[in-house]
Design goal:
Distance between the termini: 56 Å
Number of domains: 2
Largest sheet: 7 strands, mixed
Helix content: 10-25%
Number of strands: 17
Structural class: alpha+beta
Radius of gyration: 27 Å
Shape: elongated
Oligomer: single chain
Order of helices and strands: HHEEEEEEEEEHEEHEEEHEEE
Mean pLDDT: 85
């Protein structure tokens, strides 16, 4: 009778060992599979922002980045199965935007790579199937950090005959002139004329020369110095150029011009910023910044203001303020005199839950897991 009870005890202990070892391994495998799916989805969303927002083909950067990142994360020592033509998809978000990447990873019998058991085979369970799904999105950002203290006008629709290089909509009495230029904000995606962040078909890589604004002229690359929140004097202004102001600035945001000539602090700040990463350069063939730092400090957001609102205020005798409506990514290449020369680059922003929804047409995107 003792032998019977000892035998039953050994079987019970063996079953408990199976539960402790195999089930623990299965839970680990499930967590690792989820990590692989998360990595794949985030890599795909990042590729939408930095490589091509429109290329969703099997051989495109979004799909290939998703597959590569997911397979780089092993599941219990094995490479998960991720088929580019089946397991990487682009579902619509709840607001109807086509900005999501969904990745599925598998270690299953159907994919000929199930997870083997350690002790379960004694009970006739040789393998188990493990899978995971993740979804990431590159959604319009409604806020930015590390914003620099100068601002340029957002791009407008040029209607002047002949075309010129200034925004002209109102006469000196605030009346709309014939052939007036038009500005459509990012919230009006159908008519918005702003900078296109698509790396293949948009403005990425376009040279942008920033020059200090003169008077009330509104020109595409003329910037005005911005008195940032809590700013105190020229030193603070310069520090916000050389460093990263951690305050999240959301749109729309009312900006006030920094009084006085700020050419000196601007030039000094730009030079110090350049020296933080002097070897970074623009790779024209791949349309991206090459740097040993990620990201390079020479890549930063420039705030853009509503040119219509600013000119209307000036011509109608109101106090002229600037309303931030968008940002554009800028890679600093050099400074020549007072000219700041760089290129338009992709930009990653943030989602401020305390701010309003981001307009669909904004330049920066926020990359995040959603499922």
């Amino acid at each position: 009778m003792s032998f019977v009870w000892v035998g039953i005890g050994f079987m019970t202990f063996f079953a408990a060992s199976t539960l402790a070892i195999d089930v623990g391994m299965f839970m680990t495998a499930r967590s690792q599979a989820q990590n692989a799916a998360d990595a794949g989805a985030l890599a795909g969303a990042t590729a939408l922002v930095f490589d091509s927002y429109t290329d969703r083909t099997v051989g495109g950067p979004a799909v290939q980045s998703s597959v590569s990142a997911a397979k780089s994360n092993l599941v219990v020592g094995g490479i998960p199965s991720v088929k580019p033509d089946e397991d990487v998809t682009f579902p619509l978000g709840p607001t109807g935007l086509d900005n999501r990447v969904q990745v599925k990873v598998f270690r299953t019998t159907n994919r000929t790579n199930p997870v083997p058991t350690l002790i379960g085979s004694v009970f006739g369970v040789d393998t188990v199937d493990i899978g995971a799904t993740a979804t990431a999105e590159a959604s319009p950002a409604n806020a930015m950090t590390c914003v620099k203290p100068f601002m340029i006008p957002d791009r407008w629709k040029e209607n002047n005959v002949p075309p010129n290089n200034t925004f002209d909509r109102y006469d000196n009495k605030g009346v709309v002139i014939p052939n007036a230029d038009e500005y459509f904000p990012p919230s009006d995606k159908a008519h918005y004329q702003g900078y296109d962040p698509d790396a293949q078909s948009g403005d990425i890589g376009t040279v942008l020369v920033l020059r200090a604004g003169i008077g009330n002229n509104i020109e595409p690359s003329f910037y005005f110095s911005w008195k940032m929140p809590n700013a105190v004097g020229a030193n603070w202004y310069e520090d916000n150029i050389t460093g990263c102001n951690p305050d999240a600035i959301s749109i729309p945001f009312q900006m006030v011009q920094e009084p006085g000539a700020m050419a000196g602090p601007t030039n000094k700040g730009i030079d110090l910023l350049y020296d933080k990463d002097p070897n970074a350069y623009w790779d024209a063939s791949n349309k991206k910044v090459v740097s040993t730092q990620s990201p390079s400090p020479r890549v930063f957001p420039i705030p853009m203001y509503d040119p219509d609102q600013y000119q209307a205020a000036n011509t109608q005798g109101r106090t002229a303020t600037f309303i931030m409506v968008n940002w554009v990514g800028f890679f600093l290449e050099e400074r020549t005199g007072n000219d700041i020369i760089g290129r338009i680059v992709p930009l990653v922003g943030v989602i401020d839950k305390n701010a309003g929804p981001a307009p669909e047409g904004v330049f920066p995107k926020a990359i995040r897991l959603v499922q």
